[in-house]
Amino acid sequence: MPNVEIELNPVDFITVGTIGPKGRRTFHIQAGRRSQIVSLTLEKEQARALGEAIAELLDDLTTRYPDGAEGKIKLSEYNMDLRDPVDPLFRIAQIGLGYDEIRNMIVIVAQEMLILGEEDDPEAVQPGVVRFWGTRAQFRALSMYAGNIVKKGRANPRSNGRLIYYWT
Hints:
Blueprint: E1 5-8, E2 13-19, E3 26-33, E4 36-42, H1 44-64, E5 92-100, E6 105-112, E7 129-134, H2 136-151
Parallel strand pairs: 1-7
Antiparallel strand pairs: 2-3, 3-4, 5-6, 6-7
């Protein structure tokens, strides 16, 4: 299995979006630089947690480095739609965030989820890694939009697509 390593530094755009009807949506994080578009699949909870973690990081950065703050973000100024083709490179197992103080840039590091077969040597197989670098403003917009996308799910979030019986 080839080891994929991609670094988009910096991204022209970064977004989170879904494909499919409520209850069966597939979540994607997507970024692009010039003509290269990279899409990854993630879980709804990963999208929610990523949005919250970005907001927390940006709030901390604004306190520590107010000169580089992103200012008021208007989502209407950003094209947050997924771009075609949405052809996921891999499903995300782990996501990390980082900050480069010198460049005032944020990075998302996404690691591939590996599903090993019986014949696969776990020591020989390395997960793919993708890094998306962007500005604080781009990541604030991503954080806000991720929260909106996650909230667009079912009207009753307890209904997870399974039939539930209640006896009283």
